[in-house]
Specification:
BirA Bifunctional Protein, domain 2, seven-stranded mixed beta sheet, alpha+beta, globular, single chain, two-stranded antiparallel ribbon, 9 strands
């Protein structure tokens, strides 16, 4: 499948959407078309993402320019039809022309979605595939296959939202590891898995009962801490800039051995020490490590042949650090005043 065919395909969709826009008779119909085709999760946007991620696209720069031109045509058509419909309604005798026009403009994109897409793009560029998992799972995948002991405090009803004795709202995205390894059946694996997490933990401004994570897992022969460090360093440079420094500290997680936590230099003091970083010069970002051999064995891998690395990235955590947001709850209030600064 060549580039011209893929570009012709999205142009055909764009032309069809423009026809639907021009045939829209009222604001409600026009808004339905926008949500179905043009919005970030619409058919046209998804098709654009699929094409840009296609291995068949060789000259991605040229493809992006052409695809963006198609999008511009659709958006211009949308704005023109919107004005036409509004003007037609204002001419009606029973319409009060002193009222403000119907506003179909997009106010902003929630920064957690901006960060989520940015993280996915970074790891997609490093060869990681996206693995989608559910928000609800069995405690066997959420806890047992991750080497979390039966008497571990995270299993308690006081800390986890249980649906029944076995099903629960996932406390982390690590449950996707077990699902992915089960499907791969002992073969090399390289995935990231975005998803929601739920914990009874909202004691301060940086914690919430609901938050989002992106899990990373790579399994192959001869995987070591050097591989993990290199991957995390690329992530830091791409997300926060070339000048940000990274450091790794010893830690403990049941599913990794050894376990580490990654910090980045404070952007407020450049590593010297200030109130923001509690005078340490660094701010904690994420947890990671080498996959525990017990986890590999429980999930069908020969730990003497294969090894792996894993990491978990809190999306809100990255957004807070990147944009200087002071309260995690702002992500979930649907306040237009907060969203207006994030246009994508």
């Amino acid at each position: 499948m060549n580039n011209d065919y893929l570009l012709q395909e999205i142009k055909s969709i764009s032309d069809d959407v423009q026809k639907k826009i021009l045939n829209a008779k009222d604001k409600s119909e026009l808004l339905d078309i926008y949500n179905k085709y043009i919005a970030s999760n619409g058919i046209l946007s998804q098709k654009k993402n699929n094409i840009l991620k296609s291995k068949s696209i060789v000259d991605k720069k040229t493809a992006i320019l052409k695809i963006n031109s198609f999008f511009d045509e659709v958006k211009k058509c949308f704005e023109a039809q919107k004005k036409s419909i509004i003007n037609a309604e204002l001419l009606k005798e029973n319409e009060d022309i002193s009222l403000p026009a119907f506003d179909l403009s997009v106010k902003g994109i929630n920064p957690i979605h901006l960060i989520r897409e940015k993280i996915i793009d970074i790891f997609f560029g490093m060869g990681f595939k996206i693995y989608h998992s559910n928000d609800i799972d069995d405690e066997y995948y959420n806890f047992t296959l991750m080497n979390i002991a039966s008497n571990h405090v995270s299993r308690d009803m006081e800390n986890t939202f249980y649906i029944d004795q076995k099903l629960l709202l996932c406390t982390h995205t690590s449950h996707a590891q077990g699902r992915a390894m089960e499907e791969t059946k002992g073969k090399p694996l390289k995935i990231i898995s975005p998803g929601k997490c739920f914990r009874k933990d909202d004691d301060d401004l940086t914690h919430s009962h609901q938050f989002m994570q992106i899990e990373g897992l790579m399994i192959d022969k001869n995987i070591n801490l050097g591989n993990l460090k290199a991957i995390l360093e690329i992530f830091v440079k791409k997300m926060f800039g070339e000048n940000r420094k990274m450091r790794l500290r010893n830690s403990f997680f049941p599913f990794t051995e050894p376990s580490i936590e990654m910090d980045i230099s404070c952007d407020n003091c450049c590593g010297v020490g200030c109130y923001k970083c509690k005078n340490t010069g660094y701010i904690e970002v994420l947890g990671a490590g080498i996959v525990n051999p017990k986890v590999l064995e429980m999930n069908g891998y020969n730990s003497k042949v294969y090894s792996g690395l894993a990491f978990g990235i809190g999306i809100e955590r990255i957004a807070i650090l990147k944009y200087g947001i002071d309260n995690i709850r702002r992500f979930y209030t649907n306040d237009i005043r907060f969203l207006k600064d994030f246009k994508g």
